[in-house]
Structure formats: C-alpha cells, structure tokens
Amino acid sequence: MSQSKIKRRVGNYEVGRTIGEGTFAKVKFGRNSETGDAVALKILDKDKVLKHKMAEQIKREIAIMKLIRHPNVVRLYEVLGSKTKIYIVLEFVTGGELFDKIVNHGRMKEDEARKYFQQLINAVDYCHSRGVYHRDLKPENLLLDASGNLKVSDFGLSALSQQVRDDGLLHTTCGTPNYVAPEVLNDQGYDGSTADLWSCGVILFVLLAGYLPFDDSNLVNLYKKISSAEFTCPPWFSFGAMKLITKILDPNPVTRITVPEILEDEWFKKDYKPPVFDEKEDANLDDVEAVFQDSEEHHVTEKKEEQPTSMNAFELISMSKGLNLGNLFDEQGFKRETRFTSKRPANEIISKIEEAAKPLGFDVQKKNYKMRLENIKAGRKGNLNVATEVFQVAPSLHMVEVRKAKGDTLEFHKFYKNLSTCLDDVVWRTEEDMQETK
To answer: Which of 100, 125, 136, 154 is catalytic?
Structure first.
C-alpha cells in the first residue's frame, strides 16, 4: 500500500468516498486524524440553506440531535462550518442498511422482525418526546451496527426543508411515496409523530412480507391505495402481527394507534428489552451557533488536491465486506453499488466508462475523477442516476466504485451488466480469476 496523499481534509477530518446522497446533502466517509475514529460527514451547501431560509431550523434540529444519546439513533458528534459548506459529523455505522438485508435474504421470521421493530419504536418514541420527527422513515434509513442492532439515521435531518405553519402542522409532502402516511399526501397538514408511526407500520409489513403493502407503478393509483389503506396481509402473518399492523395502518391519524398503545400490545411485548443508556453527558452547543457566523475565526479549513482520492488501509478495511478485487460485479443479491479494480490510468478509466455509458442512453457529467451518469429516459422510479468515482489504491492500481444515486435498483443492475461487457479490457483480474472464467 503506498503512502498516498489525502485528497481532501476538513479541520481534523480526512474526507473519503461518497457513501450517500440526498436532495440537500451528500454523505462522505471520514476519519478523525487525531483519534483514528471513522465518521460519516453529512455535507450541506451553505448558500442553499440560506436561500431556502433553513438556517434557523437546521440550527434547532442539530442542537436537539446533539442532545440525543439513544442506542438506536445514529449519534451526531459535532458540526463544522467553512465559508461555503456545513459539515455534520455523525457516527459511522458499519453493518449496512436494513434494506439490503431484506433484498438479499427476503422476508424475516417474526421474532427477528419484532426485535428490529421494537428498536425502531424505541428510537421513534424517544425522539418524538424531544420534538424531533423523521418524516422519511424507510428501510434505507435504518442502519445496522456491528452487533446487528438497529440505528435510525437522519433523525431530524432528513426533512430539512420542512416548515411548521401557525396551525402547528407540517405542510410539505416529503418522503418516499410507498412509506408516506395518507394525511401527508392529502396536504391538509399533519402531525409528525402520527405520520412517522404510519411509516413504522409499513416497515413492519415489509420486514414480515418481503414486499410493500402499497405498491403501484401509477402514482395516482398508489395514492388511492394509501388513502384508503387498501392492503392485504399474506397468510403467513400471525394474528397478533396482522392486528397490530392494521391498527398502525389506519388511514385516520386521529384513531391510529399511539406509541404508548403499541408498547402495551401483546405481539409487540414478546421478548421486549427496554433500551439501556445514559443521558447524563453534557453536550456543548457552541459549534452549532458558530457554523452560521461569517467571522473567519469560526471557519474550518478545507484542503483539496486535484487527483484521484487515495485510499489507505483503514478505509479498505472499513469497506472490505463489499470489496472484491477479482470479480467485476457481484451477482448475489440486489446491491446498489459495486466495485472493480484496474491497472489502467485514471483518465483512461473515466474515458472508457463515458464511451460505454453514452450508447446506453446516459448523459455524462465529469468532475475530476468522479462522474454522474443520468439516463435520459425516465424509468420506473424516475431517471436512473449512477455515480462513479476512481480511487487510487497504489501508484499503479485504481479501484472504481459504481453506485446507484437515484432510481430503481433493478434498472441499475441491468445497467451495470451492460456496462461490464464494455469494460472487459479495463478490469484487472488475478490469475485465479482467469482460471475461474476458463
């Protein structure tokens, strides 16, 4: 492994690969250079925040999140500000998304699903008691730690553009349509806590069934199904699970089951373990205020280098689960990212990907050693967006990450299968791999 230069540093943090993207933010892998601890860096554009008049709300949300110390909620450590960006430093969770577990292994047994659901309700209840609502709960926002415990990510941060009006209700439709409560879709104003509970009910159904309760390629039909809570439980659901899901997926938020009622439900209570945690630690909120001050003394320094991001041993170990240096694409399961290695120069790799993507109907945008490929034709879930980045592992060895940024996972799989055939001469294979293909 070469002693490679760091491409980017923010304050005490080395900034690595992109691990997630949203409308208002990008999440990157980071490492505290003083302690060696891995973190996730959520990066927001300051101009966008000010343009959408979100500064006060973000300040409030971040301040609350800093005070939250719950074993089932991703921890927010600190917040930094540069002249142009806001960096929210979060706990780095290593066990992947609950989404991947469902996609790769199918529906869960009731005991396993119940354990995750109990942890989800614990997290939701705790945050609601502090006035924080998620508004975009779905399996993709539920992470698993190394011990297999649930960690809700983006609590208080996922709906940064939402506003509460004078009537005390939220009025912005947000979230993934399949998981969204009927009152959110109807735009009559809604209570954040009851809307979150509906999403929890959809998640429980997905864990037990392996598919969505409300699904339709036509958005109008989907909204109709959600509004009338038109769903059918499969025959393998136990009566207790069916009864609880029906009470949660009540289209009327006023009569929908509440958290205290869920905690008393017989199906829910089986093998229930209340969370054990210590809230006594004091949180310093000075950094939250400093982020929005224009004074240079409060700004953190950003350092950049125009070359492929170098990857050190620490980062390789952190992502080793998904790293396969031999095979181009792992065909087991429906993954939304894949990687391959190449001994070709970084510029050549970028050119080859561009040459392969354009005939497949993709618009290509390049910046340094990153690319954004967007399908001109809209698919089942809008236009498929694919992000690629070239990392330097050693002076003559690069690793290429190909990741779905937006759109349908199955369409992404189809795309990268086509791409793989065009990149055959770019991919580096070991002798062992060559034997396998023979």
So the answer is: 136
